[in-house]
Structure formats: structure tokens, C-alpha cells
Automatic annotation (TrEMBL):
Cited InterPro entries: DUF3533, T7SS_ABC-Transporter
Lineage: Bacteria, Bacillati, Actinomycetota, Actinomycetes, Kitasatosporales
Sequence intervals crossing the membrane: 192-210, 248-272, 278-301, 308-329, 365-386
Domain of life from the UniProt record: Bacteria
Organism (species): Streptacidiphilus pinicola
GO cellular component: plasma membrane
Protein name, per record: ABC transporter
Keywords for this protein: Cell membrane, Membrane, Transmembrane, Transmembrane helix
Record's subcellular location: Cell membrane
Pfam families (UniProt xref): DUF3533 (PF12051)
Domain DUF3533: 8-372
Length: 417
């Protein structure tokens, strides 16, 4: 009576601790190909004695100076960068302006009133932490480029006064701007994650409530409410028919849960959202896919089905969602889980609808595809298992005749006395 729940509870607690904390402890140390745009718009002529202008030199130094494999620098044109930010393909951008070479050269010949500038663009729609990581990387790269250019300028102007030498040593100013705005009521890019979490919980909790409610109504499980206990007569129904009933009820009740979630988030709390009809349809299909998966797992695994579905849809899914900590900043196992775990797919679709104008290439197409695949797999797995059990004659609880039950209770009472 003590051994099984003690071991199981300990293993679950250990697994949850390792899964949730293992993905967030060292984002910088786990960086792996974080996508950032690098824009060299410098059109200036190369300085005397050099073959490339300063913008090209800086771009090459930025790529060469990054730790191997940590950043995926995407060299794009000024026209391409906004589209990459607006589709969520990059976490930020480093922009070298068109007059960069000319403005740096002016420092050695005139009393320039404006310092050369490199701009760092953020993308808060991909989450505050991911955007912050990209911003830190860009600012560090720009500062290192400024110091490298400063050494050249200091050597070129040996007789400069102390104020000028101080300017020449670190000549480039770094400014930070929002590359793609997401609106005020977006939780700094976190509403997509929490809304996705609500969809998963609505599908998970709703599926389990429907499952237990149907079992109680059909007489295959007891119903307890406080001190009140009821047990209905068992309805002769096989596993496949029971699963079909649960899935049909899930499809109907999910309409209510989806509408309630959207009403609470948008109408009551004022969450920023566009494409409302699309968001509702996507939310319904996401909840339904989760609910169907819960029913299939419960039908296959029985009493421990709730624990199995908790790991599938919550324990393994949330740390690998990439919605709070970028997958590129997590250990390899989370990047692997993110290829198929539902939270990763759903958060990409929600992000696309809420922040990126419902662009298909911002994660919405992949989300729709994975929802369809997940729903089909749930149907195939669930009905394959129940039909197998039915063919093997592995029926559920067999009702005990009242006469035998009374005899058994009487015998138990005599043995106890």
C-alpha cells in the first residue's frame, strides 16, 4: 500500500524537476545556431590602402568573432531584414548603415558632431528572453567592432588631443530599436506562451473530466462528491464504443471551453489579438487534438493514462515549447522534443496569429500540419488499442450480481468479527 505510490510519486517529482529546470539553467552556455540577421548596408568606398569598406570588415569580424555554432548569422539586404523580423525567422538584427565608412572617415579629418552608428533591432514577438539574448549578442559584437576600428583610428591620428583620442578609441555608437512591434497588451511577447498553455490545459483537463464522467455515467467507475458516493448500473458497452462516445463528447464540449478561454483572455482581460475568427478556429482545433490524444491514451493505458498524458502534453511539452526559452538556447534533448511535442507546434501558430499577422511562414502552416497529424494519430492509436482489447475479450469491469455481492459482504463481516 505504501511502496507503489511512494516510488511513483518520487519518480514523477524527480522527472519534473530535471525536465523543467534542466532547460533554463544555462541559456548562454547552450546556445546553438540562434538565428540573427546581419545587414551590411554600407555603400562607402574602401579606405585608402584597403580593399573593403568598413561595413564589410565589421560584418566579417562579427561572424568570425562569434563562438563556433552559437549564432546563425543570416547576411541579408536592408530590404530583406524587415520581412525576416516580421515572420519570426530571426530573433534580432544588426544593421550597419549606408554611410558607415564615410562617417568613420570623417572623424579623422573634421570635428564630427555625430558619431558613426550601428543599430541593434529586437524582435519581442519571439519572447522577451530570446530577444534579449539576441540583443546582448548584437551589442557585444558592435562594441567589439568599435574597439577594433578605434585601434585603426588612433594609429592614424597619433597627435590628437585627449578628448579626440577618447572618441577615436571607441568611435561607434550602438542604438537599440524594436525591429517588429507587437503591441502594448502582449505581455512582452509572453501572451502567446500563456495562451498556448491555456489551450493545452483546457484540452487536457477537459478530456480527463469527460473520460471520468462517462465512466461514472456508464457504471464503470464510482462517483464521489464529498461524503456522497454513488455507483450506477453498468451499461453493457465495449471499449471501442466507449472511446467513440468520449471522443464525440470531446468534440462538442471543446466548443464551450475554447469560447470560454477566448472570452476570458480577450474580452475580459483585454489581451491584444487580431484575426479573431482564425484564432478561434485554431484554438478549437488545438484543444480538440489535445482532447482526442487524452482519450486515446486513457483508453490504451487505463488508470495510469492520466499520468502518461500529463507527461506527453505538459511535462515534456512545456520545457520544449521554445516560447519562453528559445530552443536554440536549450540542451539537445529539448530541441529534439520540440520537433514533435504539441506545445512547440501550437505556440508557433498562436505566435503567428497574435504577433506576425497570421503569416504561414511564421509558424502557422507547421502548426496546422502538426494539429492534423496529432489528431489522426490519436484516432488511429486509440481505436487500434480498443479494438485489440475487444477482440482479445479484455472487457472492462464485469458487474457482480447483487446476490453474490451481498454474500461476499456478509462473509467479510463474519470473517472480520
Amino acid at each position: 500500500m505504501w511502496l507503489f505510490p511512494s516510488v511513483l510519486a518520487t519518480l514523477v517529482a524527480l522527472s519534473l524537476a530535471l525536465l523543467y529546470m534542466g532547460g533554463i539553467l544555462n541559456p548562454n552556455g547552450n546556445l546553438h545556431h540562434l538565428p540573427i540577421a546581419l545587414v551590411n548596408a554600407d555603400t562607402g568606398a574602401p579606405p585608402p590602402g584597403q580593399q573593403q569598406n568598413l561595413g564589410t570588415q565589421v560584418a566579417q569580424a562579427v561572424v568570425a568573432g562569434s563562438p563556433s555554432g552559437s549564432v546563425q548569422w543570416n547576411r541579408v539586404s536592408p530590404a530583406e531584414a524587415p520581412g525576416m523580423l516580421a515572420s519570426g525567422k530571426v530573433y534580432g538584427a544588426l544593421v550597419i548603415p549606408p554611410d558607415f565608412t564615410a562617417s568613420v572617415g570623417a572623424l579623422t579629418t573634421t570635428q564630427a558632431s555625430v558619431r558613426p552608428t550601428i543599430t541593434v533591432l529586437t524582435n519581442p514577438g519571439l519572447g522577451s528572453l530570446g530577444s534579449s539574448l539576441a540583443s546582448q549578442i548584437n551589442q557585444f559584437a558592435a562594441h567589439q567592432a568599435s574597439l577594433a576600428i578605434g585601434k585603426q583610428l588612433t594609429a592614424a591620428v597619433p597627435g590628437a588631443d585627449p578628448t579626440t583620442r577618447l572618441l577615436l578609441a571607441d568611435p561607434v555608437a550602438v542604438t537599440t530599436q524594436v525591429g517588429h512591434s507587437i503591441g502594448q497588451y502582449s505581455g512582452l511577447g509572453l501572451t502567446a506562451f500563456y495562451y498556448t498553455l491555456l489551450l493545452i490545459l483546457a484540452g487536457f483537463v477537459g478530456g480527463n473530466l469527460i473520460s471520468s464522467g462517462v465512466d461514472s455515467a456508464l457504471g464503470y467507475a464510482d462517483s464521489e462528491l464529498g461524503p456522497w458516493h454513488t455507483r450506477r448500473l453498468t451499461v453493457p458497452i465495449d471499449r471501442t464504443q466507449t472511446l467513440l462516445l468520449k471522443m464525440l463528447m470531446t468534440a462538442g464540449i471543446t466548443v464551450l471551453t475554447t469560447s470560454t478561454v477566448m472570452l476570458a483572455c480577450i474580452a475580459i482581460l483585454g489581451m491584444g489579438a487580431s484575426h479573431i475568427p482564425l484564432l478561434w478556429i485554431f484554438s478549437y482545433c488545438a484543444c480538440l487534438a489535445i482532447g482526442l490524444g487524452v482519450q486515446a491514451i486513457n483508453a490504451a493505458f487505463g488508470g495510469i493514462g492520466q499520468l502518461v498524458s500529463m507527461f506527453v502534453f505538459i511535462a515534456l511539452a512545456l520545457p520544449s515549447s521554445g516560447a519562453t526559452v528559445p530552443l536554440q538556447a536549450t540542451p539537445t534533448v529539448y530541441r529534439f522534443l520540440g520537433t514533435f511535442e504539441p506545445a512547440r507546434q501550437l505556440s508557433g501558430g498562436v505566435r503567428s496569429i497574435l504577433y506576425f499577422d497570421a503569416r504561414a511562414d511564421a509558424g502557422l502552416y507547421r502548426a496546422w500540419a502538426m494539429i492534423a497529424i496529432g489528431a489522426v494519430l490519436a484516432l488511429i492509436f486509440g481505436f487500434a488499442m480498443t479494438q485489440y482489447y475487444d477482440r482479445k475479450g479484455l472487457r472492462r469491469l464485469t458487474p457482480q450480481p447483487m446476490s453474490e455481492a451481498g454474500t461476499g459482504m456478509a462473509a467479510g463481516a463474519e470473517a472480520g468479527s
